[in-house]
Amino acid sequence: MTDRPDTDGSPFDDLPGDLMIWVLIVSELLVFGAGLAAFLGVRLTDPAGFAAAQDHLHRAAAGVNTVVLVTSGWLAALGAQAVETGRLARARGLLAAAAGMGAVFLAIKWAEYAGKAAQGIGVETHPFFTFYYLVTGFHAAHVAAGIVVLLLVAARAQTREVEAGVAFWHMVDLVWVLVFPVIYLLR
Fold first, then answer.
1. With pLDDT > 90 as the criterion, what percentage of the chain qualifies?
2. Which residues have CB under 8 Å from 154's CB, separation 6+?
3. Phi, psi angle pair for 134, to nearest 5°
4. Are 81 and 52 in contact (CB under 8 A)?
5. Would residue 133 count as lying in a domain?
6. 31 in a structural domain
7. Banded model confidence at residue 3, pLDDT cuts 50, 70, 90
8. Would the pLDDT of 16 be above 90?
9. How many domains, in total, are found in the chain?
10. How far is the C-alpha of 97 from the C-alpha of 84, rounded, in Å?
11. pLDDT for 173 beyond 80
12. Which residues 6+ apart lie within 8 Å of 50 measured at CB?
């Protein structure tokens, strides 16, 4: 049993945040998992075409984005620790920095999309790009939502809220750590 006042002795009391955030996280992981499974399934029908399409991606930018999001997750975790120890100003700064790194991720992703548009590559160019835009665009939407969540929980700096927001942000990180190799590296 935890020392939190809002516990009822259930096995979910030790989860950071709230049970409902975990329901959301698991459902989002299932959606992304289904998208990646579909990508891999369709890839089996045209491995050469997928490899040729993949060569149009900017792997270095995606690698930088991976470092950006992992660093952001680390900052968010430090922010959660700071809230737990009552260092609210530090927590707010760390959570804002994590959100700022999310904005950097989106800027790099936007530049990548702009580069594809300049090359005339769209969702109908090849099935690879249909999945590329759907999966990475859906992820980018989660990054944008996560930025808002981090800023909202930073403003209030309440332990349970920060835990829930940071748990969501870690899901966004985790999804990218799975998307990056599947979309950008797997041959």
1. 88
2. 79, 91, 92, 95, 96, 99, 162
3. -65, -50
4. no
5. yes
6. no
7. very low
8. no
9. 1
10. 18
11. yes
12. 43, 126, 127, 128
Residue 19: predicted pLDDT: 83
Residue at 77 is within a domain: yes
Among candidate residues 53, 64, 140, 63, the one with its CA nearest the CA of residue 103: 140
Distances (CA, A) of 50 to 36, 43, 61: 14, 6, 19
Does 152 reside within a domain? yes
Question: Which pLDDT does position 18 carry in this prediction?
Answer: 78
Contact status, residue 69 vs residue 176, Cβ threshold 8 Å = yes
- Tell me the CATH number at 150: 1.20.120.80
- Which token pair is 83? 């809230």
Q: Are 68 and 101 in contact (CB under 8 A)?
A: yes
For residue 168, what are its two tokens?
């969501």
The residue assigned the tokens 């930018």 is 61
Domain that holds residue 180: 59-185
Report the C-alpha gap between 163 and 158 in whole angstroms: 9
Mean pLDDT of the chain: 93
**Which pLDDT does position 20 carry in this prediction?**
87
